[in-house]
Amino acid sequence: MNFVPAALTVSAAVCKTVTINLTHTGSLPRNAMGHNWVLSATENAQGAAQEGWSAGLENQYLKPADIRVIANTKIIGGGESDSVSFNLSDLKVGGDYTFFCSFVGHFAMMKGTFTIAE
């Protein structure tokens, strides 16, 4: 239960839009061991994850319209893939961002750093 790679760096000078492609390499269905990719400011990540658990699988374990969530894929099961694209213009070069899985209980192990470079 981890992201590979565990850290991502994107150049704001080169990229205006980023696309994240997530593939679940396991075999269990999404309701048993689903995964997603969620981006948030680091200071908001844990709260967004924990408050999302009560939102349920149908909401990707994210509170609907949570302004702390910058971008997210849907929850996928084994063998499935999903993508999300987002604009870097609202993010700060050198800002402190974390990506994580919002499936219940996964936040502790499934998270990484997202850095925007010049």
TrEMBL record:
InterPro entries according to UniProt: Azurin (IPR014068), BlueCu_1 (IPR000923), Cu-binding_ET (IPR050845), Cupredoxin (IPR008972)
Subcellular location, principal: periplasm
Molecular function terms from GO: copper ion binding; electron transfer activity
Localization in the cell: Periplasm
Gene Ontology cellular-component terms listed: periplasmic space
Source domain of life: Bacteria
UniProt keywords, alphabetically: Copper, Electron transport, Metal-binding, Periplasm, Transport
Blue (type 1) copper domain span: 1-116
Function, in words: Transfers electrons from cytochrome c551 to cytochrome oxidase.
Protein name, UniProt field: Azurin
Protein's organism: Paraglaciecola psychrophila 170
